[in-house]
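Give me structure tokens for this 144-residue protein.
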Amino acid sequence: MNPRISYLKTIPRKETCDIQAYREIAKDAYTDAPEKEEIVRKAHFLRSFAEKIPVVVDEQELLVGSMRFWRAGVGGRNVGHIIVDYRMILREGIPGMQAKIAKLTTREAAAFAEAVDAFSVFVQRYAEEAAARNMTAVAETAAR
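Here you go.
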């Protein structure tokens, strides 16, 4: 095992978000517009999460970012229900996904667009944090 991987296995899982920050973001997102459909409120939550949750980057990481959600009493497992088609994201990129969504005519299209925009914000925040830590290759990859 190389030294970088050995090091990464010794550090605590810092990608798990702060429970109090999660609660505040969820409270704001879900109480902001209670009359809206659930899918719209969830997309709004993702946007708030992407904009507000602290980002954590370790200089030894080559892949940064996490969407691990915590809820009080759940512990450290992922309780979000996000199924990501990484192949499509890598093939299409965020602009390609946004273009596909723009052609949709379903009532969920606006919520889906907001969720993808939130993903873009989240990726950009990690790119900025990586750049601030002089992790140029990681920052440039995340910014693409």
